[in-house]
Amino acid sequence: MSRLKGAYVLNPSALEEIYGPEERARIERCVETVVPPQTAESVSAGPEILEDAEVIMSGWGAPRFDGRLLAGARRLRAVFYGAGSVRGVVTPEFWDRGIIICSAWAANAVPVAEYAVSQIIFCLKKGWAHARETREARRFVRLRVHGAYGSTVGIISLGMIGRRVCEWLRNMEVKVIACDPYVKEEAQNLGVEMVSLDDVFRRSDVVSLHTPLLPETRGMIRGRHFEMMKQDASFINTARGAVVQESEMIEVLARRPDLTAVLDVTFPEPPAPDSPLYTLPNVVLTPHIAGSMGMECRRMGRLMAEEVERFAEGRPLKWRISREMAQLMA
Prior knowledge:
Layout: E1 4-9, H1 12-18, H2 21-28, E2 31-33, H3 40-45, E3 55-58, H4 67-72, E4 78-81, H5 92-96, E5 100-103, H6 105-124, H7 127-137, E6 152-156, H8 160-169, E7 175-179, H9 186-190, E8 193-194, H10 197-203, E9 206-209, H11 223-228, E10 234-237, H12 246-255, E11 260-263, E12 283-285, H13 296-313, H14 323-328
Parallel strand pairs: 1-2, 1-3, 3-4, 4-5, 6-7, 6-9, 7-8, 9-10, 10-11, 11-12
């Protein structure tokens, strides 16, 4: 079998993180790289460098495949994107050319779900409140907690991450309720009760947000939702900061120190230097670490290496993203 001709185009740091020696060896058994690894800047300056590339292996720092770039990459047939959402990469010209794009979004969902579950369990123990109170008192402080057994966890949106969280919670003897207008029949298989968005906030001991940022979801979580939350409840956001009306959330958190907000994403990201999110004692702020980091990135590279092999052998692709799917991804 003759090898495809291809190129790596992404940030140099992402190349090392996503495509390690094993992943590159698998890819290069069926792809001959025709140029040294490129960046978005280098191919934008000279798109003709991709003239012979039939496939591109990419990830964080991918170029935007606009008309000018595609004019240079005239033989391009497929892009393998070793990261999550492709919305910032594809263009109408890309779709009109009929180029295939595959994404490692499923692999990136794994550490996000792991992070969310770890925080759900920690919050059910009031872990962050215990740490704060113990530090301030300079002695061990034990607060009254509900614990995981018999508690209620609310999941907002049952995409790949939300579903995985539900599957892992199934073995933890918690009641899971969820809100997702697009999911009905699958809810029973997930062992969740479908409720309204208001009821998720009203009934849950912990609420975990997994909603993609779309025009219709921007700012959908309002201050009134936080007002509804139970005493000592927690809110976790590993999705997108702009899904939440941040100023309204801050106002409620300032008035209700019993609540805890674990925010791995904000809007803007990072918050402005004078944002109360840095100083509110009941806010835990992390710098978008839920997604793939360190060796977790190699999982994404492995997924794309497997997909390149399928493409080279003419087998059905597992992680191909359609034009319609791309519009709904986070």
